Amino acid sequence: MGGCFSDVRGGQQAIGGGQERPFEANSNPNNGVAGQNDAVQFFHRARGLHPLFTQLELSFSASNLIDRDITSKSDPMVVVFAKKRDGKLQELGRTEVILNSLNPVWINKVTIAYQFEMVQPLVFYVYDVDTKFHNTPVQMLNLKDQDFLGEANCVLSEIVTKHSRSLTLNLQGKNARRSMRNLGTLTVHAEETVASRSAVEIVFRCSNLTNADLFSKSDPFLRISRVVESGGYVPICKTEAIDNNMNPIWKPLCLSMKQFGSKDNPLIIECFDFNANGNHVLIGKIQKSVADLEKLYIEKIGANFVFPLSHRHPDKVLKGQLYVDRFLEKEQFSFVDYISSASNGDPRNRDSLHYIDPSGRLNSYQQAIMEVGEVIHFYDSDKRFPAWGFGGRTMNGGVSHCFNLNGSATSFEVEGVEGIMAAYASALHNVSLAGPTLFGQVINNAAQIAGNSLSHHNNKYYVLLIITDGVLTDIQETKDALVRASDLPFSILIVGVGAADFTQMEILDADNGLRLESSTGRVATRDIVQFVPMREVQSGQKSVAEALLEELPAQFLTYMRSRDIKPGTFSSAPPQIS
Question: Residue 331 above 80 pLDDT?
Answer without folding.
Answer: no
